[in-house]
Amino acid sequence: MSDAPLLSACIVSYCDYDEVCAAVRSILAHTPGELALYVVDNASPDGCGSRLAETDFEDSRVQVITLPENLGFGRGHNTVLPMLKSRYHFILNPDILLESDVLHELAAWLDANPDVAMATPQLYYPDGRIQHLPRRKPTPWTLFARQLAPRFPGSMFDRSDRHYTMQDEDLTHPRPIEFCTGSFMAVRTDVFREIGGFDESYFMYVEDADLTQKVLRKGQVYLAPQFRAVHAWHRAPARDAGKFKMQLVSMMRYFKKWGIQKGSV
What we know:
It is a single chain. By secondary structure, the protein is an alpha/beta fold. The protein is built from nine helices and nine strands. Strands 1, 2, 3, 4, 5, 6, 7, 8 and 9 form a nine-stranded mixed beta sheet that branches. Helix 5 crosses helix 6. The protein is globular. The N and C termini lie far apart (42 Å). The model has no long low-confidence stretch (mean pLDDT 92).
């Protein structure tokens, strides 16, 4: 294997060993050739990290890194930043499943579109329903309305959320977006390194919006819906008061840093 693979990918895990293993195995099965796949465990209290470290994936392309403490989503991903020698790096959630060689397909598409610094495929629920993850730049109102929209279908909250998630646009063709989901990001490694990865002041939530804003200063960010992957999408903040509070803290940090920006797409 070459010292500089075209592709690298990272999954940050926190519990749920079986889900992480399923993601890893789907990536390995659908990504032939050179790949550096990092699995960073954030000190999972259920022993997920030690189990991953002991698991034989029968593939030398996997490297498991177990952290002594939970560093959060962004810092967990930044752990591998000094190790990256790839041309394209993929930031993937542990609940992602591949159905095709989408990593190479997205890399080839980025090769053909040099002005694009980051891209995401169209993600689907396991039952085949489409996920509305491409978004406009967040505002305090859209993030507030997003929490209430599922409870009040057809309301102003629902209409605001549909606009925020670009459901009023044609997303069947590649197009620029302003908020790329952290569930599945394909980023040029040199750009990811140049911007210093994720802002580590975020522990969890909204760090993907922050990263998108940093990448937008280096190039375009695109939805590439001709490519697809499956994403379980566990929406914990809507169900967990502690995580919802954490999300609010991250939102305040984001708006303090970036201000309230009007979307342009």
